[in-house]
Structures are given as structure tokens and as C-alpha cells.
Task: structure prediction
Amino acid sequence: MEPSVGPKRATLAQVAELAGVSVMTASYTYNRPDRVSAEARSKVLAAAARLGYAGPDPSARSLRRGSTRTLGVVLGEHLSYAFDDPEAVSFLAGVADVCADHGYGVTILPISGAADDAARIRDAAVDGFVIWTTSDDDPVLAAVRAVRRPAVVHGGPAVRGMGLVTIDNRAAAAEVGAVAFAGAERPAVLSLPLSRERTSTITAGVAGADVSFPVTRERLEGYRRAAEDAGFAWRDVTVAVCARNDAAEAERLAATLLAAAEPPDAIAAMSDQQAAGVVRAARAAGRAVPGELAVTGWDDAAVAAELGLTTVAQSLRDQGAACAHAALGREPASLAAPWSIVRRGSTRA
Result:
């Protein structure tokens, strides 16, 4: 038995013939209604209804006008990350705010490291790209450059020909690290991933050459400055690396650190989600915060206020909006976003 074939889609030419008007008049009915009389428009719409014609094909219309009116967000994470991670949600909301204001849609392009990632970028029907923070060696960056559409990177890396919206991660880490390590004897850092391999590990004194995520690398450099200014050798500072920005994983790593013979008495985390995991681990281990363990986070998310976390405040929503504006050509392509330190009760005076 041959496979069944659905009914063919009615064409604009067939609609025009049935309505007794020219193809141009039928086309104007959908694309330039102000140029069609009420009588002609009524005939075209009646003919379209009889034939089951839903209107011009959107993809063909986009090709004709040279615009899809859609912005692509390249996300180097599992698609669910866009809905689960509070910072990603805030960032995407900022992108969506701008797109909605300008009549654009948003397409999320999750990148998994698979062989077809470049093809997914090449085939994306979008007018420009916003790239969520990624690594120096991510091949998706070259794929985006190759399609020659406007593109903006959030966080890093800096790529020639693309915009960049970020904060001074190095300076912010140095400042919050100074608060975290004040009065400490055994400082530690809870880090975001070092590379696209996303290996979870506990090590010491991570070298910048081993870190391909610029955001992670710059924050580690800032924490190193803070540790050395406080009199610690960086090689003696424990760095627990999370594979993801995940509170549960951070809690497990923090629990391991706190169970050591010489546990840390200060942990600077690279996100508020991680810091929340540290606080839970401290409570489970019976460690008082901040008396026995100072904790700092990053982002000033809602959980930071709930837990009284000292943190780096930045607006991911504003940064998402800035990326979207830049990708649409409505603001400068590069921007140093503002940040500040919010001191709460999770650190020592």
C-alpha cells in the first residue's frame, strides 16, 4: 500500500482565480490591505475560505522581505536550563522584553556539543544571535561568524566582529572575595565549570591556562587577588568545581569540603544558587554562618535576600535586554554592565 499523501496546499494564484482578481490584488489583501478596496478584499477572503487557504507561507514571506523578525539565543546548555536556572530565566526575560517591544520573536538554539551544532546555527531562521556565555574554544562561535548576521556574546569570550555585554568579573570577584576571606584561615572557592567538558572536581590553586570559560577564569583571577591580598598562597586555596550552576551539586561538594580534616572557614561561590547549596551543607554539618563559615554568592538573586547572602549584584535581565538591543542594531554592540557588592549577614564584619 502506498503511503497516504495529504491534500496539497492551496496557492495564492488559485485564490486570485476563484475571486476573479489579479494575483497582485490577492497578495496585497494580505500584505498591503490599505491598497485593496473593501469589495476586492471581501472576494479574496471568501475565495481563500472556500479553498482552505490560510495565507502566505511565512518562510517565503521572510525570504522576500529579507527578515524573519526573530532573534536567536544560542544556549550552550540543555534546553530545560533556560527554564530551570533563575539567572538564565532573568536573562531571557530581558531579551524577550526587547523583542516584544520591537515585534520580534525569540528562538532558543540549545547547543549540546554534537556534530550538528554548526548546522543548527547555519539553518536558523533568525536575523541575529545572542550567545549565552561560553568557552574560548566553542566551535559555535565560528559557526555564528560564518553566517554573517549581527551577533552579541553575553559574558564572554570577546570575539572579533561580535558585540560583548558583560561586567568586570575580575574586579567584582576581587572585591567580594576580600569580604569573604576577611578573618578566614582556610578560604575556598566554589567554581562554575572550567571547560566544556564540565568535570566536577576538588583541586587547589587552579591555573588560568586550564580554564577555557572566560567568565570562570576572570572570577578565579579575582578571587586569587583577594586571597593573596589576605596573605594566602593561591596554591593553598581549595577550589571545588561544579559541572553546572546547580544548588544540589554545590551542596554535595560543600559537604565534602566541610567533612575534611581541615574544613574551610570561608567559601566564595560563583552564584547564589551555589551559595544556597553551601548554606544547606553548613546547616547539615552544624556549622554556624558566618561565625564558623563565611559564605558569599553572585547575582543577587531572590535566594540571596532570603538567606541573607553577601553577594555580587548584577542585573541579568538588563544585560539580556542590552544584548537584544545590540543584536537588533539599536544600541552599541559592546557594554560594560554595572555591578556592586551587597553585604548581608553571611560574612564576618
Q: What stands out?
A: The longest helix spans residues 86-101. The chain has three domains: 12-56, 70-166, 169-313.
